[in-house]
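Chain A, query sequence.
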Amino acid sequence: MPRPTETFDDAAAFAAAQKGQRTQRARGPRGEGDRLAALGRIAAYGFMPRWRAGCGFDFWHTDGRSTTAHESYRAAVLAAEKEVST
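Chain A, predicted structure.
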């Protein structure tokens, strides 16, 4: 399988690649690790994310509890983490 073509914006990274040296790259978008960690903490309390048409994003538990709905997913994650940990 051919290797994917890489593009470089940084001259130093390009020179390192030519020499066969690997540079560390971020594994996801900035802040993604924080969001995944927050989802893990919320899931530890048994809550799962969902989208409800007309309401927005919230987190629900199989026993019927749910967190406050928010229009953005990020806001729902931040609010749910505060709500379920108290």
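The longest helix spans residues 32-43. Strands lie at 48-52, 56-60.
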